[in-house]
Amino acid sequence: MDTFYISHGSPTLSIDDSLPARHFLKSWVPTGLAGPQPPSAILVVSGHWETDTPAVNVIRGTNDTIHDFYGFPAEMYKLAYPAPGAPDVAERTKQLLEDAGFGPVAEDRRRGLDHGAWVPLMVMYPEAGVPVFQLWVQTARDGAYHYDHGRALAPLREEGVLVVGSGSATHNMRRILRTLAPTSHEPAPWWAAEFDDWLRESLLGGRHDDVYLEVAPHAEVAHPQPDHFYPLHVALGAAGDGCKAELIHHSWSNATLSYASYRFTTKN
């Protein structure tokens, strides 16, 4: 099972059919991006769940749908993604992390799916039939820390678990050009374009050890907070050293939000 970093961008991805990224995610199953068979479970590392210590949600039953956004169309607050939890795989994930020295890992038995998880998944797997669980990000730590967590989770791939890092290749909500239509052809500002180019060239060129905000161009503008970037490191780490990166989608919203999304294929 390959691992993925998906740029979920704006919550309007759930309803706005004008967004190219939405059409990309709609093609997920028909084009077999994650393989010919449904995954046994989906692990989403979301930029919208921040904790001080490692945590996993362990839901027995159906995940709640968390509408953790404000000021959007009323219809979006009625959307639900009632995917079942994956308690057994979540418990195994906790054990893998603790065996690797990243413990203790907290179990959250009440938290459902935030929009970093359910917004892309309701487009990718609209029937909500695949069990889903989530991991945190810890913004007080660095990318290398999250990469090492991903490495500890590599065995999940062999068990058919789809590991998805969900964030945004660029994410500065204060700089977003809200005066533009989401699909405006206005070119991206220099800081966003150069960061996006750097990320693509580093990943596709196999320079994965360079993909850290500490050395990225314009990182303080492209990611004032690292929450939407660290999920990439978990997905990259879970694919293993020497994995191959592939750009599977690229588009922009409001000129500043990059929807660049990547697949990481494990080296044989």
Automatic annotation (TrEMBL):
Q: Does the keyword Cell wall biogenesis/degradation apply?
A: no
Q: Which cofactor does it need?
A: Zn(2+)
Specify the domain of life of the species encoding this protein: Eukaryota
State the Gene Ontology terms under molecular function: ferrous iron binding; oxidoreductase activity, acting on single donors with incorporation of molecular oxygen, incorporation of two atoms of oxygen; zinc ion binding
Residue span(s) of domain Extradiol ring-cleavage dioxygenase class III enzyme subunit B: 3-264
| UniProt keyword list | Dioxygenase, Metal-binding, Oxidoreductase, Zinc
Give the family, as the similarity comment puts it.
Belongs to the DODA-type extradiol aromatic ring-opening dioxygenase family.
Know the name of this protein?
Extradiol ring-cleavage dioxygenase class III enzyme subunit B domain-containing protein
Source organism of this protein record: Setaria italica (Foxtail millet)
The opening ranks of the lineage are:
Eukaryota, Viridiplantae, Streptophyta, Embryophyta, Tracheophyta
